Amino acid sequence: MAAVSFRSMREEEFHAWLPGHTRGYAEGMTAFAGLTREDAEAKAERDVASIFPNGLATEGVRLWVVEADGSAVGTVFLGVRDAGAWLYDITIDEGERGRGYGRAAMLALEEEVRALGFGELGLNVWGGNEIARSLYTSLGFGEVSVGMKKTL
Predict the structure, then answer these.
(1) 20, 103, 115, 147: which has the highest count of C-beta atoms within 10 A?
(2) Residue 99 sits in a domain of what CATH number?
(3) Rounded to an integer, what distance in angstroms lies between the CA atom of residue 10 and that of residue 16?
(4) Are 142 and 45 in contact (CB under 8 A)?
(5) Domain that holds residue 41
(6) How many domains in the chain?
(7) Tell me: the pLDDT tens digits for 10-58?
């Protein structure tokens, strides 16, 4: 299995990461949640601003850079939600995917979550993201609820 490590995201990396994260969140809501582009962008801006009121220094938020052999290969965004550990986002850089870094990062994240004193890790995954759903299922995550809709 691929070996990865985490390091805290630096302030300049945070400012570079934030717009792409916000844009990706909005794109997910447009593609999978049925929001218009305008509504998704507005919601993404509101949600992200509420999660990071103090930027990278926000209490209860952890942002890590995932590294393999000393090179950045992705990011992990963890927060506290409803008094529990919540994975807001894990992204492996497009050119690094398919090498086992996602699985390795999730296993490393489990250790971080335990070290922070949590016994569970929650997350949401877009319904159309079969690769992520398959990874999470293979790691022992179980579905808690499933939202469904039909376009008429």
Answers:
(1) 103
(2) 3.40.630.30
(3) 10
(4) no
(5) 5-138
(6) 1
(7) 999 999 999 999 999 999 999 988 899 999 999 999 999 999 999 999 9
